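Hi C.,

You asked whether I'd gotten around to modeling the 88-residue construct. I have! Everything is below, sequence then structure, no commentary in between.
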Amino acid sequence: MIIIISENIGDNIRKIRKLRGLTQKELGEMLGATEAHVRAYEKGRRNPKDVTLKKIARALDIDYTILKGYKAERISEIELESDMDYLL
């Protein structure tokens, strides 16, 4: 499975969260935020500050520049799994 990283931060959060097998509620708990906050970020109703975006990236085990759409255009599930193995 290949996901396309876009310039839309909310889309990137949603795609990678789902790839990681997390619900919005679970991600919110990892961030110390509510499910509603995560939903608002994903739908683009709220833009996370850089500090929050970095927390989201840490929770998803990914470089925050990928969430911003700066670092990569494509990222595969295998690459994400490899990143997770490295971090464990």
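If it helps when you're writing up: Residues 20 and 81 are 9 Å apart (CA to CA).

Thanks,
B.
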